[in-house]
Amino acid sequence: MQDQWLNIFLLNKFEFSYYSILYFLSGFLFPIVVINNSLNNFFDYKFSSNKYESNKLRSIGYLVTFTLLILSILIIRYFIFSINYIIPQIDLNSYFDIKLKILLLLIVMILLLINKTKRIIKRLFLLNFFIIFFINWSTYYLNLQGIEIFINKYISDNNYYDFNNLNILNISYLFILEIFYYLWSFITYQNNLSDWSITIPKRVDFIPLSKITIFYLGVLIYYLIFKRIS
User: Fold this and answer.
1) What residues contact 109, with CB distance under 8 A and at least 6 apart?
2) What is the pTM of this model?
3) Domain boundaries defined on the chain
4) What is the pLDDT of residues 129-149, one digit of tens each?
């Protein structure tokens, strides 16, 4: 009898250490695909614009200001969103007054004007995407195992940060950021800003935008289906 219980214990231990770990690792497949695809296809754009062409956009000041401002606000809000999720006990609004928010916004806008730092910011919000997913998936997995940790206690009970809802919010944030990052890449391509002249986009310039839309809508559909069956 004792040997029988020992065999059951060893079997359960094997199942937890092998199959459950494989299940845990399999959950990272989609976010890794998203990040890899973003770095390979939605990172360093090449456009067909020619600075010697006569078909230039007029009044580009409004376009530059609007795109830069919206992208900067989205990036800041995305990182604040992740901090609020990871450490919900901290009220960031109490730490940031209006002057500090404006200063932070100006810093991000300046960094986006520089190509090298613009690419660093892109990598950072992809890293932010992965961190949110990692904590969310780990919390979900530990709940399935019946293990309660600090994160489970303070995060998993919040309906707003429900596993499926957070996946959809996370990928939606990244989807919108990718679109504005593409628009900003087009605006800042080569010497557009220094020449203060932007060529009207051609049909081929919209292909990456359609690829972004198709890819992220596909990921969103996957998470919506997972939400219905989970």
Assistant:
1) 68, 69, 72
2) 0.84
3) 31-229
4) 999 999 999 888 877 776 655
Helix (H) or strand (E) holding 181: helix 163-187
Distance in angstroms (rounded) separating the CA atoms of residues 110 and 229:
44
User: Please, what is the angle between helix 115-144 and helix 2-26, to 10°?
Assistant: 150
* pLDDT per position as a tens digit, 36-66: 999 999 999 988 765 555 456 667 888 999 9
Give the Cα separation of 98 and 188 in Å (integer): 29
Q: Which two tokens stand for residue 228?
A: 């219905």
CA within 13 Å, CB half, 128: 24
CA dihedral 141, 142, 144, 147 (to 10 degrees): 180
Q: Degrees (nearest 5) of the Cα angle 177, 215, 111?
A: 20
- Length, in residues, of the chain: 230
- Are 174 and 34 spatial neighbours (Cβ–Cβ below 8 Å)? yes
Given a contact cutoff of 8 angstroms between Cβ atoms, the answer to whether 196 and 60 are in contact is: yes
